Amino acid sequence: MRAYLSDRMGAALLMAPLLLFLVLAYAWPFLGVVKWSFTLPTPGLGQYNALLTDQLVQSVFIRTLRIAAIVTIVSVVAAYAITVVWVRGTPVQRVVAEFCILVPFWISVLTRAFGWVALLSNRGLINTWLQAVGFISEPLALVRNEFGVIVGMTHFLIPFAVFPLASSMRSLDDRVLLAARGLGSSRMRTFWSVFVPMTRSGIIGSALIVFVFSLGFFVTPAILGGGRSVMIAELIYLRIFQSPDWGLGAAISVVLVLFVGALMALLFRYIRPKQLV
Amino acid sequence: MPTYRPGPVSLILAALVALFLLLPLLAVIPVSLTPSRMLAMPSGDLSLRHYQALIEDPRWINSILLSIRIGIVSSAFSTVLALCFSLGVWMFQPRFTAALVGFVLLPMVVPPVVSAITLYFLLTSISGFSSFFGYDTWLGVAMAHAVMTVPFATVLILVSLSQLDRRIDLAARGLGATVWERATRIIMPNIKFGIVTAALLSFVLSWEEIGVTLFITSVNAITLPRLMWMGLRDNIDPAIAALSVILIVITVLVLVARSVVVRLRAAR
Protein backbone atom coordinates (compact mmCIF):
# COMPACT_ATOMS: atom_id res chain seq x y z
CA MET A 1 0.00 0.00 0.00
CA ARG A 2 2.79 2.41 0.86
CA ALA A 3 4.61 1.62 -2.35
CA TYR A 4 1.37 2.27 -4.24
CA LEU A 5 0.92 5.64 -2.57
CA SER A 6 4.49 6.75 -3.23
CA ASP A 7 4.06 5.70 -6.86
CA ARG A 8 1.05 7.97 -7.13
CA MET A 9 3.00 10.78 -5.48
CA GLY A 10 5.89 10.34 -7.91
CA ALA A 11 3.61 10.51 -10.91
CA ALA A 12 1.85 13.55 -9.53
CA LEU A 13 5.18 15.27 -8.96
CA LEU A 14 6.03 14.79 -12.63
CA MET A 15 3.18 17.12 -13.54
CA ALA A 16 4.38 19.86 -11.22
CA PRO A 17 7.25 21.51 -13.19
CA LEU A 18 5.19 22.42 -16.25
CA LEU A 19 2.23 23.60 -14.18
CA LEU A 20 4.52 25.71 -12.03
CA PHE A 21 6.26 27.13 -15.11
CA LEU A 22 2.99 28.15 -16.74
CA VAL A 23 1.57 29.63 -13.55
CA LEU A 24 4.67 31.79 -13.13
CA ALA A 25 5.36 32.62 -16.77
CA TYR A 26 1.81 32.83 -18.13
CA ALA A 27 -1.04 32.98 -15.62
CA TRP A 28 0.63 35.42 -13.24
CA PRO A 29 1.73 37.92 -15.93
CA PHE A 30 -1.70 37.69 -17.53
CA LEU A 31 -3.20 38.82 -14.23
CA GLY A 32 -0.64 41.63 -14.36
CA VAL A 33 -2.02 42.69 -17.74
CA VAL A 34 -5.54 42.63 -16.32
CA LYS A 35 -4.29 44.82 -13.48
CA TRP A 36 -2.81 47.29 -16.00
CA SER A 37 -6.18 47.60 -17.65
CA PHE A 38 -7.69 48.80 -14.37
CA THR A 39 -4.82 50.93 -13.05
CA LEU A 40 -3.08 52.65 -15.97
CA PRO A 41 -2.93 55.58 -16.32
CA THR A 42 -5.32 56.14 -13.39
CA PRO A 43 -7.11 53.52 -11.27
CA GLY A 44 -10.69 52.82 -12.26
CA LEU A 45 -12.77 51.68 -15.18
CA GLY A 46 -11.61 54.56 -17.39
CA GLN A 47 -10.04 52.31 -20.06
CA TYR A 48 -13.14 50.19 -20.45
CA ASN A 49 -15.22 53.34 -20.67
CA ALA A 50 -12.87 54.56 -23.41
CA LEU A 51 -13.46 51.32 -25.34
CA LEU A 52 -17.15 52.14 -25.45
CA THR A 53 -16.73 55.77 -26.47
CA ASP A 54 -13.47 56.06 -28.46
CA GLN A 55 -14.37 56.30 -32.15
CA LEU A 56 -11.02 55.01 -33.39
CA VAL A 57 -11.17 51.92 -31.19
CA GLN A 58 -14.72 51.22 -32.29
CA SER A 59 -13.96 51.57 -35.97
CA VAL A 60 -11.06 49.11 -35.52
CA PHE A 61 -13.37 46.64 -33.76
CA ILE A 62 -15.95 46.88 -36.53
CA ARG A 63 -13.31 46.54 -39.24
CA THR A 64 -11.88 43.48 -37.49
CA LEU A 65 -15.29 41.81 -37.27
CA ARG A 66 -16.01 42.61 -40.92
CA ILE A 67 -12.67 41.31 -42.19
CA ALA A 68 -12.92 38.22 -39.97
CA ALA A 69 -16.41 37.45 -41.32
CA ILE A 70 -15.37 37.81 -44.98
CA VAL A 71 -12.19 35.80 -44.45
CA THR A 72 -14.17 33.06 -42.67
CA ILE A 73 -16.68 32.63 -45.49
CA VAL A 74 -14.09 32.67 -48.28
CA SER A 75 -11.65 30.36 -46.46
CA VAL A 76 -14.25 27.76 -45.53
CA VAL A 77 -15.67 27.63 -49.07
CA ALA A 78 -12.20 27.39 -50.62
CA ALA A 79 -11.09 24.82 -48.04
CA TYR A 80 -14.21 22.78 -48.74
CA ALA A 81 -13.40 22.62 -52.45
CA ILE A 82 -9.87 21.34 -51.93
CA THR A 83 -10.77 19.04 -49.02
CA VAL A 84 -13.31 17.17 -51.15
CA VAL A 85 -10.49 16.22 -53.50
CA TRP A 86 -8.00 15.53 -50.69
CA VAL A 87 -10.38 13.11 -48.95
CA ARG A 88 -12.34 11.59 -51.85
CA GLY A 89 -10.10 11.94 -54.92
CA THR A 90 -8.10 9.28 -56.71
CA PRO A 91 -4.75 8.44 -55.07
CA VAL A 92 -2.86 10.83 -57.38
CA GLN A 93 -5.33 13.68 -56.78
CA ARG A 94 -4.99 13.11 -53.05
CA VAL A 95 -1.21 13.40 -53.10
CA VAL A 96 -1.38 16.62 -55.13
CA ALA A 97 -4.06 18.15 -52.88
CA GLU A 98 -2.16 17.16 -49.74
CA PHE A 99 1.00 18.79 -51.10
CA CYS A 100 -0.89 22.01 -51.89
CA ILE A 101 -2.37 22.11 -48.37
CA LEU A 102 0.66 21.10 -46.32
CA VAL A 103 3.41 23.10 -48.05
CA PRO A 104 1.81 26.50 -47.32
CA PHE A 105 0.79 25.26 -43.87
CA TRP A 106 4.43 24.66 -42.87
CA ILE A 107 5.81 27.86 -44.36
CA SER A 108 6.15 30.81 -42.01
CA VAL A 109 3.53 33.52 -41.97
CA LEU A 110 6.18 36.10 -42.90
CA THR A 111 7.25 34.28 -46.04
CA ARG A 112 3.65 33.88 -47.11
CA ALA A 113 2.81 37.54 -46.51
CA PHE A 114 5.94 38.47 -48.42
CA GLY A 115 4.84 36.28 -51.32
CA TRP A 116 1.64 38.30 -51.53
CA VAL A 117 3.59 41.56 -51.43
CA ALA A 118 5.66 40.26 -54.35
CA LEU A 119 2.47 39.44 -56.25
CA LEU A 120 0.22 42.38 -55.40
CA SER A 121 2.41 45.45 -54.87
CA ASN A 122 2.65 48.26 -57.44
CA ARG A 123 5.74 46.75 -59.01
CA GLY A 124 4.68 43.19 -58.23
CA LEU A 125 4.01 40.32 -60.59
CA ILE A 126 0.33 41.01 -61.23
CA ASN A 127 0.63 44.74 -61.89
CA THR A 128 3.77 44.34 -64.01
CA TRP A 129 2.05 41.71 -66.11
CA LEU A 130 -1.24 43.60 -66.50
CA GLN A 131 0.66 46.72 -67.57
CA ALA A 132 2.86 44.79 -70.00
CA VAL A 133 -0.20 43.27 -71.62
CA GLY A 134 -1.83 46.67 -71.69
CA PHE A 135 -4.96 46.03 -69.65
CA ILE A 136 -4.19 48.89 -67.28
CA SER A 137 -2.02 52.00 -67.45
CA GLU A 138 -1.74 52.74 -63.72
CA PRO A 139 -0.96 49.97 -61.21
CA LEU A 140 -3.99 48.69 -59.32
CA ALA A 141 -4.02 49.20 -55.55
CA LEU A 142 -4.05 45.56 -54.47
CA VAL A 143 -2.06 45.84 -51.27
CA ARG A 144 -1.83 48.28 -48.35
CA ASN A 145 -5.60 48.12 -48.13
CA GLU A 146 -8.33 45.81 -46.89
CA PHE A 147 -8.27 43.74 -50.08
CA GLY A 148 -4.64 42.76 -49.52
CA VAL A 149 -5.35 41.91 -45.87
CA ILE A 150 -8.28 39.67 -46.80
CA VAL A 151 -6.31 37.86 -49.51
CA GLY A 152 -3.33 37.26 -47.23
CA MET A 153 -5.41 36.10 -44.25
CA THR A 154 -7.52 33.79 -46.41
CA HIS A 155 -4.34 32.25 -47.77
CA PHE A 156 -2.99 31.74 -44.27
CA LEU A 157 -6.19 30.25 -42.85
CA ILE A 158 -7.33 27.84 -45.60
CA PRO A 159 -5.11 24.96 -44.31
CA PHE A 160 -6.53 25.44 -40.80
CA ALA A 161 -10.06 25.28 -42.21
CA VAL A 162 -9.20 22.06 -44.05
CA PHE A 163 -8.53 19.85 -41.01
CA PRO A 164 -11.98 19.87 -39.34
CA LEU A 165 -13.63 19.55 -42.76
CA ALA A 166 -11.43 16.59 -43.65
CA SER A 167 -12.28 14.75 -40.44
CA SER A 168 -16.02 15.16 -41.01
CA MET A 169 -15.72 14.10 -44.67
CA ARG A 170 -13.68 11.02 -43.74
CA SER A 171 -16.30 9.82 -41.28
CA LEU A 172 -19.01 10.05 -43.93
CA ASP A 173 -20.31 6.70 -45.17
CA ASP A 174 -19.79 6.19 -48.92
CA ARG A 175 -22.85 3.97 -49.17
CA VAL A 176 -25.19 6.86 -48.36
CA LEU A 177 -23.85 8.82 -51.32
CA LEU A 178 -23.97 5.82 -53.62
CA ALA A 179 -27.56 5.17 -52.49
CA ALA A 180 -28.54 8.74 -53.40
CA ARG A 181 -26.95 8.34 -56.82
CA GLY A 182 -28.58 4.94 -57.25
CA LEU A 183 -31.99 6.40 -56.49
CA GLY A 184 -31.55 8.77 -59.41
CA SER A 185 -30.26 11.93 -57.74
CA SER A 186 -27.91 13.99 -59.93
CA ARG A 187 -24.29 14.70 -58.93
CA MET A 188 -25.19 18.27 -57.96
CA ARG A 189 -28.23 17.27 -55.98
CA THR A 190 -26.32 14.50 -54.13
CA PHE A 191 -23.66 17.03 -53.22
CA TRP A 192 -26.01 19.74 -51.99
CA SER A 193 -28.68 17.68 -50.26
CA VAL A 194 -26.63 14.75 -48.91
CA PHE A 195 -22.91 15.51 -48.82
CA VAL A 196 -22.97 19.09 -47.50
CA PRO A 197 -25.62 18.54 -44.77
CA MET A 198 -23.74 15.49 -43.51
CA THR A 199 -20.52 17.48 -43.06
CA ARG A 200 -22.25 20.28 -41.15
CA SER A 201 -20.29 19.75 -37.93
CA GLY A 202 -17.04 20.12 -39.86
CA ILE A 203 -18.25 23.31 -41.50
CA ILE A 204 -19.25 24.85 -38.17
CA GLY A 205 -15.98 23.76 -36.56
CA SER A 206 -13.78 25.14 -39.29
CA ALA A 207 -15.75 28.40 -39.54
CA LEU A 208 -15.34 28.97 -35.80
CA ILE A 209 -11.62 28.16 -35.86
CA VAL A 210 -10.98 30.51 -38.77
CA PHE A 211 -13.08 33.26 -37.21
CA VAL A 212 -11.33 33.01 -33.84
CA PHE A 213 -7.90 32.97 -35.49
CA SER A 214 -8.65 35.98 -37.65
CA LEU A 215 -9.83 38.08 -34.69
CA GLY A 216 -6.37 38.03 -33.11
CA PHE A 217 -4.37 38.18 -36.34
CA PHE A 218 -1.35 40.41 -36.31
CA VAL A 219 1.42 39.78 -38.81
CA THR A 220 -0.50 39.52 -42.08
CA PRO A 221 -2.69 42.61 -41.55
CA ALA A 222 0.31 44.62 -40.39
CA ILE A 223 2.31 43.78 -43.53
CA LEU A 224 -0.41 43.69 -46.17
CA GLY A 225 -2.50 46.47 -44.63
CA GLY A 226 0.47 48.83 -44.54
CA GLY A 227 -0.89 50.66 -41.48
CA ARG A 228 -4.05 51.65 -43.33
CA SER A 229 -6.41 48.91 -42.30
CA VAL A 230 -5.46 48.33 -38.67
CA MET A 231 -7.05 45.35 -36.90
CA ILE A 232 -7.43 44.76 -33.15
CA ALA A 233 -4.10 42.99 -32.68
CA GLU A 234 -2.16 45.73 -34.45
CA LEU A 235 -4.03 48.34 -32.42
CA ILE A 236 -2.82 46.65 -29.22
CA TYR A 237 0.74 46.73 -30.57
CA LEU A 238 0.46 50.40 -31.48
CA ARG A 239 -0.99 51.29 -28.07
CA ILE A 240 1.90 49.56 -26.29
CA PHE A 241 4.81 50.66 -28.46
CA GLN A 242 3.90 53.81 -30.35
CA SER A 243 1.56 55.90 -28.25
CA PRO A 244 2.39 54.41 -24.89
CA ASP A 245 -1.09 53.81 -23.56
CA TRP A 246 -0.57 50.47 -21.83
CA GLY A 247 -3.87 50.61 -20.00
CA LEU A 248 -5.91 50.81 -23.19
CA GLY A 249 -3.81 48.10 -24.90
CA ALA A 250 -4.35 45.88 -21.85
CA ALA A 251 -8.10 46.58 -21.76
CA ILE A 252 -8.48 45.68 -25.45
CA SER A 253 -6.56 42.42 -24.77
CA VAL A 254 -8.87 41.52 -21.90
CA VAL A 255 -11.97 42.13 -24.03
CA LEU A 256 -10.45 40.09 -26.87
CA VAL A 257 -9.76 37.14 -24.55
CA LEU A 258 -13.29 37.21 -23.15
CA PHE A 259 -14.79 37.33 -26.64
CA VAL A 260 -12.60 34.50 -27.94
CA GLY A 261 -13.33 32.49 -24.78
CA ALA A 262 -17.06 32.76 -25.43
CA LEU A 263 -16.58 31.63 -29.04
CA MET A 264 -14.40 28.69 -27.94
CA ALA A 265 -17.11 27.60 -25.50
CA LEU A 266 -19.47 27.59 -28.47
CA LEU A 267 -16.96 25.58 -30.51
CA PHE A 268 -16.71 22.83 -27.91
CA ARG A 269 -20.47 22.46 -27.80
CA TYR A 270 -20.36 21.47 -31.46
CA ILE A 271 -17.23 19.34 -31.73
CA ARG A 272 -15.14 17.37 -29.32
CA PRO A 273 -11.48 18.47 -29.19
CA LYS A 274 -10.29 15.16 -30.70
CA GLN A 275 -12.18 15.77 -33.91
CA LEU A 276 -10.12 18.85 -34.58
CA VAL A 277 -7.03 16.83 -35.48
CA MET B 1 -16.15 -1.63 -54.34
CA PRO B 2 -17.25 1.59 -56.07
CA THR B 3 -16.46 4.80 -54.25
CA TYR B 4 -17.88 8.28 -54.50
CA ARG B 5 -15.34 10.43 -56.39
CA PRO B 6 -15.38 14.22 -56.90
CA GLY B 7 -16.80 15.27 -60.27
CA PRO B 8 -15.33 17.68 -62.83
CA VAL B 9 -16.77 20.81 -61.16
CA SER B 10 -15.17 19.88 -57.81
CA LEU B 11 -11.86 19.20 -59.53
CA ILE B 12 -11.82 22.57 -61.29
CA LEU B 13 -12.68 24.46 -58.09
CA ALA B 14 -10.06 22.52 -56.14
CA ALA B 15 -7.46 23.27 -58.81
CA LEU B 16 -8.23 27.00 -58.50
CA VAL B 17 -7.79 26.83 -54.72
CA ALA B 18 -4.55 24.88 -55.14
CA LEU B 19 -3.28 27.56 -57.52
CA PHE B 20 -4.22 30.27 -55.02
CA LEU B 21 -2.34 28.40 -52.28
CA LEU B 22 0.85 27.93 -54.31
CA LEU B 23 0.91 31.26 -56.16
CA PRO B 24 2.57 33.45 -53.50
CA LEU B 25 5.18 30.77 -52.88
CA LEU B 26 6.08 30.67 -56.57
CA ALA B 27 6.04 34.46 -56.86
CA VAL B 28 9.08 34.89 -54.62
CA ILE B 29 11.31 32.93 -57.01
CA PRO B 30 11.55 35.55 -59.80
CA VAL B 31 11.80 38.38 -57.26
CA SER B 32 14.78 36.69 -55.58
CA LEU B 33 16.66 36.71 -58.90
CA THR B 34 16.23 40.40 -59.65
CA PRO B 35 19.45 42.38 -60.15
CA SER B 36 17.78 45.49 -58.70
CA ARG B 37 18.28 46.79 -55.17
CA MET B 38 14.56 47.08 -54.63
CA LEU B 39 11.62 44.77 -54.92
CA ALA B 40 11.00 44.36 -58.65
CA MET B 41 10.55 41.81 -61.36
CA PRO B 42 13.80 40.96 -63.16
CA SER B 43 13.72 42.53 -66.60
CA GLY B 44 16.08 40.44 -68.67
CA ASP B 45 19.14 39.89 -66.46
CA LEU B 46 19.06 37.50 -63.55
CA SER B 47 21.38 37.80 -60.60
CA LEU B 48 22.25 35.86 -57.48
CA ARG B 49 23.39 38.95 -55.56
CA HIS B 50 20.60 38.65 -52.99
CA TYR B 51 21.61 35.08 -52.20
CA GLN B 52 25.17 36.28 -51.86
CA ALA B 53 24.02 39.03 -49.49
CA LEU B 54 22.54 36.38 -47.18
CA ILE B 55 25.93 34.71 -46.81
CA GLU B 56 28.01 37.86 -46.64
CA ASP B 57 25.92 40.25 -44.59
CA PRO B 58 26.70 39.58 -40.90
CA ARG B 59 23.21 40.71 -39.86
CA TRP B 60 21.60 37.74 -41.58
CA ILE B 61 24.16 35.23 -40.31
CA ASN B 62 23.96 36.53 -36.75
CA SER B 63 20.20 36.33 -36.63
CA ILE B 64 20.17 32.85 -38.18
CA LEU B 65 22.60 31.66 -35.50
CA LEU B 66 20.57 33.39 -32.80
CA SER B 67 17.34 31.77 -34.01
CA ILE B 68 18.99 28.35 -34.01
CA ARG B 69 20.31 28.87 -30.46
CA ILE B 70 16.92 30.07 -29.18
CA GLY B 71 15.17 27.24 -31.01
CA ILE B 72 17.36 24.55 -29.48
CA VAL B 73 17.15 25.90 -25.92
CA SER B 74 13.40 26.55 -25.99
CA SER B 75 12.64 23.27 -27.73
CA ALA B 76 14.71 21.25 -25.22
CA PHE B 77 13.05 23.06 -22.32
CA SER B 78 9.50 22.71 -23.60
CA THR B 79 9.95 19.06 -24.64
CA VAL B 80 11.29 18.05 -21.22
CA LEU B 81 8.49 19.87 -19.39
CA ALA B 82 5.84 18.50 -21.73
CA LEU B 83 7.23 14.96 -21.42
CA CYS B 84 7.25 15.01 -17.60
CA PHE B 85 3.77 16.46 -17.49
CA SER B 86 2.35 13.98 -19.99
CA LEU B 87 3.96 11.00 -18.23
CA GLY B 88 2.48 12.21 -14.96
CA VAL B 89 -0.98 12.58 -16.47
CA TRP B 90 -0.80 9.18 -18.14
CA MET B 91 0.45 7.28 -15.08
CA PHE B 92 -1.40 9.19 -12.39
CA GLN B 93 -4.70 9.79 -14.25
CA PRO B 94 -5.89 12.52 -11.90
CA ARG B 95 -9.62 13.17 -11.69
CA PHE B 96 -9.15 16.74 -12.93
CA THR B 97 -7.07 15.78 -16.00
CA ALA B 98 -9.27 17.77 -18.40
CA ALA B 99 -8.83 20.98 -16.41
CA LEU B 100 -5.04 20.52 -16.07
CA VAL B 101 -4.54 19.76 -19.76
CA GLY B 102 -6.84 22.66 -20.65
CA PHE B 103 -4.68 24.99 -18.58
CA VAL B 104 -1.51 23.76 -20.29
CA LEU B 105 -3.08 24.30 -23.73
CA LEU B 106 -4.02 27.93 -22.98
CA PRO B 107 -1.07 29.56 -24.80
CA MET B 108 -2.16 27.68 -27.93
CA VAL B 109 -5.77 28.92 -27.92
CA VAL B 110 -5.45 32.42 -26.49
CA PRO B 111 -4.98 34.96 -29.34
CA PRO B 112 -1.22 35.28 -29.91
CA VAL B 113 -1.30 39.03 -29.42
CA VAL B 114 -2.66 38.55 -25.88
CA SER B 115 0.08 36.03 -25.12
CA ALA B 116 2.51 38.58 -26.53
CA ILE B 117 1.42 41.38 -24.20
CA THR B 118 1.40 38.88 -21.31
CA LEU B 119 4.99 37.81 -22.00
CA TYR B 120 5.97 41.44 -22.50
CA PHE B 121 4.67 42.13 -18.98
CA LEU B 122 6.61 39.13 -17.64
CA LEU B 123 9.94 39.98 -19.28
CA THR B 124 9.83 43.69 -18.47
CA SER B 125 9.12 42.73 -14.85
CA ILE B 126 12.11 40.37 -14.82
CA SER B 127 14.31 43.05 -16.41
CA GLY B 128 13.97 44.96 -13.15
CA PHE B 129 16.18 42.36 -11.42
CA SER B 130 18.38 40.92 -14.11
CA SER B 131 20.12 42.25 -17.19
CA PHE B 132 20.84 38.98 -18.99
CA PHE B 133 17.39 37.47 -18.56
CA GLY B 134 14.37 39.55 -19.42
CA TYR B 135 13.18 42.00 -22.07
CA ASP B 136 15.27 41.93 -25.26
CA THR B 137 17.63 39.12 -24.15
CA TRP B 138 18.05 35.80 -25.93
CA LEU B 139 17.25 33.82 -22.77
CA GLY B 140 14.06 35.81 -22.30
CA VAL B 141 13.04 35.08 -25.89
CA ALA B 142 13.84 31.38 -25.43
CA MET B 143 11.65 31.24 -22.33
CA ALA B 144 8.79 33.06 -24.06
CA HIS B 145 9.04 30.66 -26.99
CA ALA B 146 8.95 27.73 -24.57
CA VAL B 147 5.65 29.06 -23.18
CA MET B 148 4.23 29.27 -26.70
CA THR B 149 5.46 25.86 -27.90
CA VAL B 150 4.86 23.74 -24.80
CA PRO B 151 1.14 23.19 -25.57
CA PHE B 152 1.98 21.75 -28.99
CA ALA B 153 4.66 19.46 -27.55
CA THR B 154 2.22 18.31 -24.85
CA VAL B 155 -0.52 17.51 -27.38
CA LEU B 156 1.87 15.44 -29.50
CA ILE B 157 3.23 13.46 -26.55
CA LEU B 158 -0.25 12.90 -25.07
CA VAL B 159 -1.47 11.62 -28.44
CA SER B 160 1.37 9.12 -28.73
CA LEU B 161 0.79 8.02 -25.10
CA SER B 162 -2.89 7.47 -25.85
CA GLN B 163 -1.88 4.86 -28.43
CA LEU B 164 0.26 2.96 -25.94
CA ASP B 165 -0.99 -0.30 -24.48
CA ARG B 166 -1.52 0.20 -20.74
CA ARG B 167 -0.93 -3.47 -20.03
CA ILE B 168 2.82 -3.27 -20.60
CA ASP B 169 2.98 -0.60 -17.90
CA LEU B 170 0.76 -2.65 -15.59
CA ALA B 171 3.04 -5.64 -16.12
CA ALA B 172 6.11 -3.58 -15.22
CA ARG B 173 4.34 -2.26 -12.15
CA GLY B 174 3.27 -5.74 -11.11
CA LEU B 175 6.88 -6.86 -11.38
CA GLY B 176 7.89 -4.10 -8.95
CA ALA B 177 9.20 -1.34 -11.23
CA THR B 178 9.39 2.11 -9.68
CA VAL B 179 7.88 5.22 -11.29
CA TRP B 180 11.31 6.16 -12.63
CA GLU B 181 11.90 2.71 -14.14
CA ARG B 182 8.44 2.61 -15.69
CA ALA B 183 8.90 6.04 -17.22
CA THR B 184 12.43 5.61 -18.58
CA ARG B 185 12.56 1.94 -19.46
CA ILE B 186 8.98 1.03 -20.37
CA ILE B 187 7.05 4.09 -21.53
CA MET B 188 9.62 6.41 -23.09
CA PRO B 189 11.16 3.84 -25.47
CA ASN B 190 7.65 3.20 -26.77
CA ILE B 191 6.86 6.85 -27.48
CA LYS B 192 10.29 7.83 -28.88
CA PHE B 193 8.74 8.90 -32.16
CA GLY B 194 6.28 11.22 -30.43
CA ILE B 195 9.00 12.78 -28.28
CA VAL B 196 11.26 13.46 -31.27
CA THR B 197 8.33 14.92 -33.23
CA ALA B 198 7.46 17.17 -30.27
CA ALA B 199 11.04 18.45 -30.08
CA LEU B 200 11.18 19.11 -33.83
CA LEU B 201 7.82 20.86 -33.89
CA SER B 202 8.84 23.05 -30.92
CA PHE B 203 12.03 23.98 -32.75
CA VAL B 204 10.19 24.85 -35.97
CA LEU B 205 7.57 26.91 -34.12
CA SER B 206 10.28 28.82 -32.27
CA TRP B 207 12.32 29.26 -35.47
CA GLU B 208 9.44 31.02 -37.21
CA GLU B 209 7.83 32.72 -34.20
CA ILE B 210 7.20 36.43 -34.84
CA GLY B 211 3.99 37.58 -33.09
CA VAL B 212 5.41 37.31 -29.56
CA THR B 213 9.04 38.01 -30.52
CA LEU B 214 8.02 41.40 -31.87
CA PHE B 215 6.75 42.44 -28.44
CA ILE B 216 9.72 41.24 -26.40
CA THR B 217 12.74 42.30 -28.46
CA SER B 218 14.05 45.66 -29.62
CA VAL B 219 17.71 45.90 -30.62
CA ASN B 220 19.70 43.03 -29.10
CA ALA B 221 17.78 39.80 -29.65
CA ILE B 222 17.08 40.08 -33.38
CA THR B 223 15.88 36.65 -34.46
CA LEU B 224 15.59 35.77 -38.13
CA PRO B 225 11.82 36.43 -38.38
CA ARG B 226 12.36 39.69 -36.52
CA LEU B 227 14.98 40.74 -39.07
CA MET B 228 12.66 39.72 -41.92
CA TRP B 229 9.91 41.78 -40.33
CA MET B 230 12.15 44.85 -40.20
CA GLY B 231 13.05 44.33 -43.85
CA LEU B 232 9.41 43.93 -44.83
CA ARG B 233 8.05 46.96 -43.08
CA ASP B 234 10.55 49.59 -44.16
CA ASN B 235 12.15 49.28 -47.56
CA ILE B 236 11.40 45.87 -48.94
CA ASP B 237 14.74 44.12 -49.21
CA PRO B 238 14.92 41.46 -51.98
CA ALA B 239 17.28 39.46 -49.75
CA ILE B 240 14.04 38.41 -48.03
CA ALA B 241 12.93 36.87 -51.32
CA ALA B 242 16.17 34.88 -51.53
CA LEU B 243 15.75 33.73 -47.93
CA SER B 244 12.09 32.83 -48.58
CA VAL B 245 13.06 30.69 -51.56
CA ILE B 246 15.59 28.80 -49.42
CA LEU B 247 13.03 28.27 -46.63
CA ILE B 248 10.39 27.08 -49.11
CA VAL B 249 12.81 24.63 -50.73
CA ILE B 250 13.75 23.22 -47.30
CA THR B 251 10.05 22.83 -46.38
CA VAL B 252 9.25 21.03 -49.62
CA LEU B 253 12.23 18.69 -49.23
CA VAL B 254 11.30 17.84 -45.63
CA LEU B 255 7.65 17.18 -46.55
CA VAL B 256 8.60 14.99 -49.50
CA ALA B 257 11.10 13.06 -47.35
CA ARG B 258 8.47 12.64 -44.65
CA SER B 259 5.85 11.30 -47.04
CA VAL B 260 8.40 8.85 -48.49
CA VAL B 261 9.24 7.64 -44.97
CA VAL B 262 5.54 7.30 -44.07
CA ARG B 263 4.88 5.33 -47.27
CA LEU B 264 7.85 3.03 -46.65
CA ARG B 265 6.71 2.37 -43.09
CA ALA B 266 3.18 1.63 -44.29
CA ALA B 267 4.49 -0.72 -46.99
CA ARG B 268 6.44 -2.77 -44.45
Describe the structure.
Chain A has 277 residues and is an all-alpha fold. Chain A has helices spanning 2-39, 46-53, 55-88, 91-106, 109-120, 125-133, 146-170, 174-182, 187-198, 200-215, 219-224, 232-241, 246-270. In chain A, helix 5 (109-120) packs across helix 7 and helix 8 (174-182) runs antiparallel to helix 9. Chain A is globular, with a radius of gyration of 24 Å. Helix content of chain B is 75%, strand content 0%. In chain B, helix 1 (8-32) crosses helix 12 (239-267), helix 3 runs antiparallel to helix 9 (192-207) and helix 6 (138-162) packs antiparallel against helix 9. The longest helix of chain B has 35 residues, at 58-92. The model of chain B has no long low-confidence stretch (mean pLDDT 90).
What tags apply to this protein structure?
heterodimer; A: 277 residues; mainly alpha; MetI-like fold; 2 domains; 0% strand; globular; B: 268 residues; 12 helices
Short description:
Chain A is mainly alpha-helical and 277 residues long. Chain A has 13 helices and no strands.
> Which spans of chain A of ≥5 residues are poorly predicted at pLDDT below 50?
none
Largest interface: A-B, 93 and 93 residues
The helicity of chain A comes to over 70%
- CATH topology call of the domain at 61-224 in chain B: MetI-like fold
Class of the largest domain in chain A, according to the CATH hierarchy? Mainly Alpha
Helix coverage percent of chain B? over 70%
| Mean pLDDT, all residues of chain B | 90
**What number of structural domains do the residues of chain A give?**
2
Biggest sheet overview of chain B = none
CATH superfamily of the domain at 61-224 in chain B: MetI-like
Over the alpha carbons, how many angstroms does the gyration radius of chain A reach?
Answer: 24 Å
Tell me the major beta sheet of chain A: none
Oligomer: heterodimer
- Classified in CATH, the superfamily of the largest domain in chain A is MetI-like
Roughly what fraction of the amino acids of chain B lie in strands? under 5%
**What's the shape of chain A?**
globular
